[in-house]
Amino acid sequence: MCKPARREPGDVTLIAVSKTHPSEAIRPLLDAGQRVFGENRVQEAEGKWPALREEYSDIALHLIGQLQSNKAEEAVALFDCIHSLDRPSLLKALAKAMDKAGRRVPCFVQVNIGNEAQKGGCSLAGLPSFLGEVQAAEIPLAGLMCIPPADIEPAPFFALLAKLAADHGLTGLSMGMSGDYETAVMLGATHVRVGTALFGERGKG
Which of 58, 68, 66, 55 shows the shortest CA–CA distance to 37? Predict the structure, then answer.
């Protein structure tokens, strides 16, 4: 994954996207040494990860799907990183939940990189001010995340996200999934979200 891009393996975190997969499908990856996993839904993650964490204490769990503000407390309690912070209402809910829990969870700001009406994500125009709000709320800013438009060459979108991150002094880039993670790594991804390539078609990612 990293060799063609002339990057060190330690520079890129592989997030195994385990959404829709039961514990018995996850165990082989855990036994092989994988420790970073991604889930789309709080409720699904609550159903399977607490028990697995009792067996594997060094798991890092990332929320990569959209998060409803009313699930902020549960997300803060369960996840080690959130990749879908994209709007002021969610920022407020997460800040309140983190204050209550006494726990600061790093967050990626999701950018609507293709300006798609059906997708979540902060708008390109609104990004500078929103990043300022995140910093003012004292939420650890992990970097930027995007999901490029489907069926279009993703490289320009990954390159744009990398430029936006650099412009704002951010180093974390959550971008790339099973079909395009190699391109994402070439363009600076620090976190890739891979499901289908690891688990098969049932939980596409």
Answer: 58
Residue 144 belongs to what H/E stretch? strand 141-145
Residue 96's domain comprises: 3-203
Q: Scanning the structure block, which residue is given the tokens 């409720």? A: 43
Q: The domain that contains 62 carries what CATH number?
A: 3.20.20.10
User: In 3D, which of 66, 28, 80 has the Cα closest to residue 191?
Assistant: 80
- Calculate the alpha carbon distances from 87 to 50, 82, 109, 111, 188 in Å: 28, 13, 9, 10, 25
Q: Which residue has the higher pLDDT, 29 or 9?
A: 29
Residue 64 CA, chain-centre distance (Å), reads 4
Q: Which long-range contacts (CB under 8 A, 24 or more apart) does 164-167 make?
A: 164/111, 164/124, 164/127
Please tell me the total count of domains within the chain: 1
12-22 tens-digit pLDDT: 999 999 999 99
pLDDT of residue 10: 77
Helices marked H in 33-108: 42-55, 72-78, 88-101
Give the model confidence (pLDDT) of 180-192 as tens digits.
999 999 999 999 9
